[in-house]
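Renewal narrative, Specific Aim 1. Our central claim is that a sequence can be written position by position from structural information alone. The example that follows is taken directly from our test logs and has not been curated for this report. It begins with the structure tokens describing the chain, in the order in which they were read.
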């Protein structure tokens, strides 16, 4: 199975497989983004066990873990974010990003764009032909970010049949590598 290298870097960032010792920081980064929950229902408060479970699952290599991988994003020896993904899902040679989070203190600093460019390069080098992800349509900042990063092909749409204050709709978008 093609996995991202356990450790790799961009000009300013160091990306590495998640470890259990980083769970409290991952949880703090995620919770710092809880304001996004009004637009994206995946941003809820989760217990620490949930984060530990994700890291533990990522440590298992292979099909048995759903080809899942969680990596942390560091800058100047400080964790500033993380992402998790599924290799060869939902189809061969596709990398599906299931979560991408940067601490609000570092957003707008070009780190996200740099990280995604590095991820695209690294994913292509290990044999992926595309990266897919889901965006909730009420999350305008995410829509702008992902479109700017080249995720412009709409693969699928899902959502409530009618718009109201509590309904959600999303699109799955792709970037070909």
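The sequence written for that structure reads:
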């Amino acid at each position: 199975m093609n996995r991202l290298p356990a450790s790799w870097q961009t000009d300013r960032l160091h990306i590495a497989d998640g470890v259990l010792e980083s769970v409290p920081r991952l949880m703090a980064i995620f919770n710092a983004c809880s304001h996004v929950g009004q637009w994206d229902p995946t941003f809820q408060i989760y217990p620490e066990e949930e984060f530990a479970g994700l890291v533990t699952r990522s440590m298992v290599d292979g099909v048995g873990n759903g080809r899942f991988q969680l990596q942390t994003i560091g800058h100047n020896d400080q964790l500033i974010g993380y992402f998790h993904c599924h290799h060869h899902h939902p189809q061969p040679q596709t990398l599906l990003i299931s979560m991408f989070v940067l601490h609000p203190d570092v957003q707008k600093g070009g780190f996200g764009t740099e990280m995604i460019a590095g991820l695209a390069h690294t994913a292509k080098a290990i044999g992926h032909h595309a990266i897919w992800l889901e965006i909730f349509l009420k999350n305008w900042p995410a829509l702008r970010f992902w479109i700017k990063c080249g995720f412009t092909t709409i693969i699928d749409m899902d959502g409530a049949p009618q718009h109201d204050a509590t309904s959600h709709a999303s699109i799955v978008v792709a970037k070909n590598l």
